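Q: Got a minute? One more chain.
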Amino acid sequence: MLPIARQVVEVLDQAVVAMREPDTKAEIRLGIPEEYSDTLLPAILADFSQEQPGARILLRCGPSVEFPSALAADELDIALHAPESVAAHDIVVHREAAIWAGSAFHEIEHRRPLPVALFDRKCWWRERCLNLLETAHLDYEIVCTSESVAGIRAAISAGFAVGVLPQCAITDRVRELPEATLPQLGETALVLTCSSAVPLRLANSLTAIVTKTVRALEPRA
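A: Always. Here it is, folded:
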């Protein structure tokens, strides 16, 4: 019996060692909106490297509207994004207002036609903005388009146009316009969506880390 017991102990020891060793082959593909790349991403990567030593994370920072199709095409394993409507399998990690923003140094929101900066691709942010302007019968002109939040924010901060931004994208060069100035855009949900083939262990770890990091930035009551 003693040799058998020793073999069992050796097998268990090997299993424990294997569990503790870094998994150098594991990887997960994460999509994250560019506007969060300098606020959330450093903390997410730091925590992930501690929890999953040796695992690789393949990042895709870009427009949030691209991520649902990337998940469906198996180009991403997990994505943080702001959909027009929340699906049953989405994990809501944060809610914030989409706001009209103007330059901190210029007041152009009362000009007519109203100079507006918008995303240059079809997305629900762009469509909601245009629908609200049309419904309110506001005279406006699209003077700048960009595929990125950074481009829209640059046009706003320069006083070239007003535009729509998530609250997280507000800087000291950009200010939120008063609610009475333009039609309100309402609230958006920031969600995590996983593909059906996502590596479960890494997905659970990354989901917990992203959720914790996002909620840590929420203002305290």
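A: Residues 14-23 have pLDDT under 50 and may be disordered.
Q: Perfect, thanks.
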